[in-house]
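#struct-pred

JT: dropping the chains for the assembly here, can someone run the whole complex?
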Amino acid sequence: MVEELLLQEDYQIVDLILIAIALLVVMALAIILFFYFSRKRIIKSELEKANLKIANQKEVLQATIITQEEERKRIAQDLHDAISSKLNIVSLNASMLSIKDISSEETNKLANSILKITGNVLESSRKIAHDLLPPTLDKFGLDAALEELCDEVAESHIFQVDCHLDASENILSKDQELHVFRIVQELFNNSIKYSEATTLDLQTKIKKNLLYLHYSDNGKGFDVLEAKKAKGLGMSGIENRVAILNATLEIISSPKNGMQVTLTLTPSKDEN
Amino acid sequence: MNASFLKYIVPIKNNLFLFHCYYILQFVILTFFYKELLKQKWVYVILVIVLGIIAFQFIQSPGIFFRYNPLGVTITQGFIVLYSVLFFYKYLQENNEFLIINIGLFFYLLSSILIFASGNLVFNMALITEYGYHLLLNLNNVLYLGLQFLIFVAWWKNYYSKKTIK
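RK: done, full complex below.
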């Protein structure tokens, strides 16, 4: 009787151990499943992030290619309109000169016309080259190039351009200068094309080893958020350049209130 | 477990001294294994401390040589389980060829702690040859088979299939 009771107690202990082991097994399974599912989720979110990045890169690439194509188209058109057609006339005149029985009066006329057209062609080829990359930037630095740009815009007499350049005495590297110049060029372009502004204002200054560039117009302004969504080529070009420069760009604008842009940039001249 | 023939060679009570070899060797080898996976130097410190504790136990009461050692088993397997959890955590984001083996080790070691820790209790019972004891041993065998199966799966995935593709 006592032995039987003892045996029963033993069985109970064994049962208890079995239950505890079963609990441990369940716990182990739960932990493994927990790790498995969190792993799955993390990998999924990583994948999404990577996909987003790739999509973004594709967008940038596409924008770059489109800009490039447009630039090519513009250059081709310029070359065709301003140079090829005029050179055609020159070659025509020259071939007429080579005809032997021709009076000296006519020869003079033809020569004069050739001279005039060649001068024109020279001028326009210089202009095209200048549009592509202003030599001032390379030779005299950012300040001079920006000033020249301001002068060019002011020449049109549609805008009143205020230019206060007080910076960049060769503190930017060549690459940085080019990017800043292109950004300003694009800002001017945008104002000229869309803003219906009358005064444009450009300021640069250096404070605490940072270059500040303020640009503002008094045009009709725009909704910044919508402009970001729409992402025209010009805007995305500016943003790409800002990203390359590692700079910060602040755009303040709203409909009917003009636009103010502030670019803050750390100069680095270690590259050259 | 099948070393009972030793009884006829050496005059000893049982073959439980082999069990001490088992869990100590298991701990040492798996510590080196996880040192390679986790790239942490402090596992060696824990190795030394745990071995010290077990050595102290043997000096204190040499009698446990012929019995189960619940404390030793719990400490050693517990630390290995901890390492395997750390390994899970470390490889949450990336893939590792030892992930499946790690699952097996974690599963087996965690669930077999109680089987070994309760060894003395069951061993001393009147029903030593009854169903309870054998059930526990067989349960251990089943769990161990699970571990072996997962190791096989890991080998199959990482090595076998690669060879056949090439």
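JT: nice. Chain A has two domains: 1-132, 134-265. The helical segments of chain A are 2-98, 104-132, 135-155, 174-195, 224-230, 233-245.
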